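hey can u check if this looks right to u? its 620 residues, i copy pasted from the old doc so theres a chance i mangled smth
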Amino acid sequence: MEEDHRRHIRELRARAMRLPLQPGVYLMHDASGEIIYIGKAKALKNRVSQYFGSERHHNRKVRQMVAHVSYFEYIVTDSEFEALVLECSLIKQHMPKYNILLKDDKGYHYIRISRESWPRISQAKQKLDDGAEYLGPYVSSWATKESVDEALKIFRLPTCTRRFPQDIKKARPCLNYYIKQCCAPCRGAISCGEYNEIVREAVEFLRGGSGSSVRELTARMEEAAEALDFERAARIRDRIEALKKVHERQKVVAVRVPEQDVIALAQGPSKACFEVFRFQEGRLCDRESFLLSDIGDDKTARAEFLTQYYSMRDRIPPRISLDGPAASMELIARWLSEKAGRKVTLSLPQRGEQKDLLEMCRSNAAEQVAQSTGRTGREAAALDELSRLLGLPKPPAYIEAYDISNLQGGENVAGMVVFEDGRPLKSAYRKFSIKTVEGQDDYGSMREVITRRFQEYFRQKESGEGFGRLPDLILLDGGRGQVSAVRPVLEEMGFGDLPLFGMVKDDKHRTRAIARDGGEISIQSNRAAFTLVGSIQEEVHRFAIGYHRQKRKKTVLGSSLLEIPGIGQTRAKALLRHFQTVAAIRSADLEELEAAPCMTKPAARAVYSYYHPEKEESGT
């Protein structure tokens, strides 16, 4: 079966090598004839033949796709731009399995105001013939939900499932009342007329926005104050303050560019998310999240996302900010410009306001990934940031870190710790006693440890666990020297592609950079990655030091106490527990030794004589 597959791949490659060196679109089919992937190429021969060459340079998504290819066909075009346009059209038509496919949930959304004595305001996905009043339609689900949530909070309207007047005074008010986010009709302290007036004000706010609501409420507050109805005036004043706070919060995400989209990608070990912030009139007007499975190369993924996303959207802004480069950016910008009927710019901000917006957008994408995998947003963001910093194809789900510990070349040991999805996996920690290196040779010790670890991989790889699992990233406690010493070992054993870096400390023994072949990468300005690498370095150092101390304790125990006649492991351990140190045992007098747990008079005399031979010889 394996030989048949290899033969089939060779046949596909031979056919690919006969393709023309012209731009065009290629379509991959599975055994049933279904199209599973569509791509474009500047030179069809070069691009398609890459799929059927060595698998070493393919990511998991490409390997899976190639494994299912039965045959391919192609369409020659006059230019690469024509290939891009045709590719977009064919992907939209066939929806191939291995292309990025976005589910378009953009429909019309409404704000519903129920028709009853105690009306409720809520979000609705469709307009029903139920007698309720509907505001809308609105295109953005997020903006509709945000507006409803703001109105309910500002005007302190109930969000619970209680029905009025049936449930008035039947139970205590919920938490929202005590934190001043609900007027609590359930208490019976507000009349039906007053409640309806509040609902009317909330609906006016939803129709006209905060500016007109503030003006109208200010006039009502002044009117109530003149009528000496100070309690009502105070309530209206509180609503005005709440409206102003909402307006101030909106300013936080206001930008100098009037109309633009901001797009960021966050990747996890098994999921990825594209987040889109849409700005109009300088303010955030919509946001969308697209959670995807394995996306492969991030440049290709961004290109596919851009063409897919804007194929589904009528509005294309003049500026689109990306958090990283996309494949064929110039062609995509040209395609977007022709689609929009004006120039569209794709930008990669590196500093300032736009960079801050991208970071905010990316953190929201990381939060979506985290929620889908059961991790925290901080963990997902740290792994994503680390992968970008080190140029990894995807966030490292399985990280192994190593540290050497010795005392002036004695008792050489090493510790290996594992972080899975950003968290310590203590069941995978391992200890090494250095066997082939004498004296203080950290480079030689690390070479031995890495050699032994990957020798175990060959023995256990069928299990896929422990040493039978390959790491996505190897971190060594040390600088370029450690990396240069270990790199040849990995290459010789056939693991030269595994990402290998060192963790460099400053004068205060804190992580400051990551070492690689030929240089260092500063990580102090990358907060999430800096915290993660720092915690890994501290953990592997703690683990290695702990093992070294354990070995030294056994050595000291074996070289002194266990040499005394009548003192075995049990008595030696009892003495150390009682006196804490060998020095304290050496300083103890005979009576103290006799009184120690597990000791007899002959045993106590033997210990005392061992440490005080001169006194025994003099008879004192």
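The chain has 20 helices and 19 strands.
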